[in-house]
């Protein structure tokens, strides 16, 4: 029965009239507000509830399709999601943005003000979580049934404020204003066990089985957020788990008069999904993090088993119902958990269960840093997950036999491949578990995937070359072009037709317009309007006044030494010193915009933020550089702010040390909006440069192999310092105390560079300055710059996440995506 047909009820009708009535009904009946007393936030909630009806109506129909057709569905397991505000995205995807604007306009309410009220769910640290959200968007758009499973953190990534130039972390209160997008699925709850011990028992067929007797059981409750697709009836579901105490447990203690223990257990249980870990190396080995990972992964797999039963599938053919993607190693414990569920709870034979497991999982690696590969002390692991440790030993035992056959008498190789690290203290290696349990392993950009096979996963690549693949990341053009850059969207719609966000390959048709003076003028006007809007926002948030017609030179991303925000600062300060020395120095007017959060425990990253703000304090006041240099730290870089910043960037700073950035997606977002990139041959920069053409990209710096060679030969930063007078002058200036008024303030940064310089800033400094010189020259030729900007957009179509998702569907998941138009 088709319970709701989309356009015939007040709740889901799509005319302006209908939307207005539904909005007013929600304001009064759902929120209890009379229109005359409603705040902007009430307007937001009422509109969100209105749009939610449309979204949920689609979601339930989409879901039913999946059950009826019994197609293979995709489960995207990710400890992080960074969806950004939902409302505007749904309006676009549902095609009701204009009708909604009219509906509200008719009663004196401005849609943009309403949209600005939405708080975003900050359930991720940065690129990895944002990728997961782009993929759910694209899965819905290409009409693949999918669920993104994760954790409903009560407190997501901290809010960043800048106080006296320093980052101060505030608690994220994303749920405090209410969350109209989620549906608490009271009927969908899973029990997750922890601790205790295992026992063997004999079943009625005389088989020896294992039973896990936990010391604690926690309940996971499902909260669903539907994710619409662009012009598609399919919805993805983001299903996040919130931890709760299991009533029976605390009541038992309570009844025995042990009130404290009952309360303690309840608090412990609820703490599991309380807070997102900032990505900070110092948190390695934290028990709560392991528990979080197991918690959501176990809930997800149990839920998938429930859905198999619901759609009449067979547990013994689990892999025909589900393709499960591991977004990094955070959910890698799922390999052992699926084995446990199949063998212990569904009585499958080990070998059958193992075949299913390998066909089910695939693993996306996100890092080349050996020290960033997750591992857990065996002791800790065994105390939290005793049964999983046994299963991992079982997997390892059989796996190492296979290795011995392929590579006889190679103990060193065995030790490297083993799921257990036995050098000194023993650890469970999660990347190895993910590799062994998956049929496909992919990196996130061509260079990254190649380096993976040569470095951290070399032994697995030698054993199973056919498992390795690359899927270069992509970004959703709906959020990051159509919504973020309405001016550009208008031009694209006029030139390419209204459906362009669903098929970015059509961007290629812009190419001839790069030579059209009239089009170039319109292009510049759009870009200038974006920069004006950002300038206003900068003034509002920081008090700094910037000039919209200066070159907006932008580096926004997490603050990390490998991303080299401090290399950017060396350039800024070198320009400052050059102008001070020679007031006629040919420096084009630039506004340097930085943004990004530093992990709270990352000392140097926080110093780098302070170095940006101290540079701003110096430069922005100095009449000698007025009109030529401005430096801004834009606080609280998140998806919402990103949507304002990316479209206003003229120059995209992608200057990580080659071999360090797995892919990057900020690089794609900026180029897709018309920025030119200055960058190293790192991550997806390589492919972006290939796509847009070397002449439209400012390349500099060592290659990944030159980096390895330089490090192997004993890198000496001092030699660069001594031989380059501008570099020396710039570093000495930082060390002098001229910035921030305290010579000790940046001593740690200077010492780090002069005595070690692990990310080779000094080696790349001169090449970076030369490339920046070329940037300045091209900026001086406004027509040439604009052509290049147009060509960047025209040639970036391949970086839509729709393309990435189609590749996953074809080569990794073996599911059918809606074919692309071309
Ligand atoms: C795209 C994005 C990132 C990733 O940026 P990179 O430049 O690839 O590191 C991080 N945070 C937010 C909010 C983003 O939108």
TrEMBL record:
Q: Which GO terms describe its molecular function?
A: glycogen phosphorylase activity; pyridoxal phosphate binding
Keywords carried by this UniProt record = Carbohydrate metabolism, Glycogen metabolism, Glycosyltransferase, Phosphoprotein, Pyridoxal phosphate, Transferase
Which sequence positions carry the modification called N6-(pyridoxal phosphate)lysine? 669
Enzyme class, broadest EC rank:
transferase
Cofactor entry:
pyridoxal 5'-phosphate
Q: Got a GO cellular component term for this one?
A: cytoplasm
Gene Ontology biological process terms in this record: glycogen catabolic process
Record keyword Methyltransferase present: no
InterPro entries for the chain? Glycg_phsphrylas (IPR011833), Glyco_trans_35 (IPR000811), Pyridoxal_P_attach_site (IPR035090)
The Enzyme Commission number assigned here is 2.4.1.1
What residue ranges carry the coiled-coil annotation?
none
Quickly give the catalysed reaction: [(1->4)-alpha-D-glucosyl](n) + phosphate = [(1->4)-alpha-D-glucosyl](n-1) + alpha-D-glucose 1-phosphate
The record's family statement is: Belongs to the glycogen phosphorylase family.
Q: What does this protein do?
A: Allosteric enzyme that catalyzes the rate-limiting step in glycogen catabolism, the phosphorolytic cleavage of glycogen to produce glucose-1-phosphate, and plays a central role in maintaining cellular and organismal glucose homeostasis.
What is the name listed in the Swiss-Prot or TrEMBL entry for this protein? Answer: Alpha-1,4 glucan phosphorylase
Query: Organism, per UniProt?
Result: Luteolibacter luteus
């Amino acid at each position: 029965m088709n319970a709701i047909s989309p356009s015939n009820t007040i709740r889901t009708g799509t005319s302006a009239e209908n939307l207005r009535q539904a909005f007013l009904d929600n304001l009064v009946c759902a929120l209890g507000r009379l229109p005359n007393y409603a705040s902007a936030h009430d307007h937001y909630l009422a509109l969100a509830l209105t749009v939610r009806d449309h979204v949920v109506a689609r979601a339930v129909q989409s879901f039913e399709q999946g059950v009826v057709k019994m197609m293979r569905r995709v489960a995207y397991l990710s400890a992080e999601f960074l969806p950004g505000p939902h409302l505007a995205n749904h309006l676009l995807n549902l095609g009701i943005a204009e009708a909604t604007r009219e509906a509200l306009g008719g009663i004196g309410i401005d849609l943009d003000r309403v949209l600005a009220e939405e708080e975003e769910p900050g359930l991720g640290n940065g690129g990895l979580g944002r990728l997961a959200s782009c993929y759910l968007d694209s899965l819905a758009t290409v009409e693949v049934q999918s669920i993104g499973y994760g954790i409903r953190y009560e407190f997501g990534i901290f809010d960043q404020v800048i106080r006296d130039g320093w980052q101060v972390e505030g608690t994220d209160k994303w749920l405090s204003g209410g969350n109209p997008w989620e549906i608490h699925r009271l009927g969908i709850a899973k029990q997750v066990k922890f601790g205790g011990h295992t026992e063997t028992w004999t079943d009625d067929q005389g088989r020896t089985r294992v039973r896990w007797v936990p010391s604690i059981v926690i309940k996971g409750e499902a909260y669903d957020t539907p994710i619409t697709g662009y012009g598609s009836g399919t919805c993805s579901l983001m299903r996040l788990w919130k931890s709760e105490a299991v009533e029976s447990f605390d009541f038992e203690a309570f009844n025995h008069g042990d009130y404290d223990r009952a309360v303690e257990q309840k608090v412990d249980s609820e703490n599991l999904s309380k807070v997102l870990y900032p990505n900070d190396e110092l948190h390695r080995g934290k028990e709560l993090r392991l528990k979080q990972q197991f918690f959501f992964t176990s809930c997800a797999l149990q839920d998938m088993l429930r859905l198999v039963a619901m759609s009449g599938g067979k547990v013994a053919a689990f892999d025909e119902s589900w393709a499960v993607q591991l977004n990094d190693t955070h959910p890698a414990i799922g390999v052992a958990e699926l084995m446990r569920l199949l063998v212990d709870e569904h009585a499958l034979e080990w070998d059958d269960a193992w075949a299913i497991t390998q066909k089910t999982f695939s693993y996306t690696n996100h890092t080349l840093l050996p020290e960033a590969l997750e591992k857990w002390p065996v002791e800790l692991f065994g105390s939290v997950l005793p049964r999983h440790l046994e299963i991992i030993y079982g997997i390892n035992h059989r796996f190492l036999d296979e290795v011995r056959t392929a590579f006889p008498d190679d103990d060193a190789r065995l030790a490297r491949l083993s799921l257990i690290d036995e050098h000194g203290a023993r650890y469970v290696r999660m990347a190895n578990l993910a590799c062994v349990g998956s049929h496909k392993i992919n990196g996130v950009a061509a260079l990254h995937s190649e380096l993976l096979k040569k470095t951290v996963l070399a032994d697995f690549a030698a054993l199973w070359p056919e498992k390795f693949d690359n899927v270069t990341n992509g970004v959703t053009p709906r959020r990051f072009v159509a919504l973020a850059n309405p001016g550009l969207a208008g031009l694209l719609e006029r030139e390419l037709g209204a459906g362009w966000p669903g098929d970015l390959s059509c961007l290629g048709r812009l190419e001839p317009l790069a030579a059209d003076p009239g089009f170039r003028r319109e292009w510049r006007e759009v870009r200038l309007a974006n920069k004006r809007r950002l300038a206003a926002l900068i003034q509002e948030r920081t008090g700094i006044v910037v000039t919209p017609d200066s070159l907006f030179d932008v580096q926004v991303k997490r603050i990390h030494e490998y991303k080299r925000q401090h290399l950017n600062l060396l350039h800024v300060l070198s320009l400052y010193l050059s102008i001070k020395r020679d007031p006629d120095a040919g420096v084009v007017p630039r506004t340097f915009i930085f943004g990004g959060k530093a992990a709270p425990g990352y000392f140097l990253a926080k110093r780098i933020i302070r170095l940006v703000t101290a540079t701003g304090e110096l430069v922005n006041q100095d009449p000698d550089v007025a009109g030529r240099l401005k430096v801004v730290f834009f606080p609280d870089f998140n998806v919402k702010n990103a949507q304002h910043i990316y479209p206003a960037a003229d120059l995209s700073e992608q200057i990580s040390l080659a071999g360090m950035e797995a892919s990057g997606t900020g690089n794609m977002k900026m180029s897709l909006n018309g920025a030119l990139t200055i960058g190293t041959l790192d991550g997806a920069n390589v492919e972006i440069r290939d796509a847009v053409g070397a002449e439209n990209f400012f390349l500099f710096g060592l290659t990944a192999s030159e980096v390895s060679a330089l490090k192997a030969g004993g890198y000496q930063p001092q030699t660069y310092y001594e031989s380059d007078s501008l570099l020396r002058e710039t570093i000495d200036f930082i060390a002098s105390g001229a910035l921030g008024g305290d010579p000790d303030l940046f001593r740690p940064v200077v010492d780090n560079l002069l005595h070690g310089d692990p990310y080779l800033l000094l080696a790349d400094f001169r090449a970076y300055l030369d490339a920046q010189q070329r940037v300045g020259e091209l900026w001086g030729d406004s027509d040439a710059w604009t052509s290049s900007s147009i060509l960047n957009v025209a040639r970036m179509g391949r970086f839509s996440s729709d393309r990435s998702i189609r590749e996953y569907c074809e080569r990794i998941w073996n599911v059918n995506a809606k074919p692309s138009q071309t």
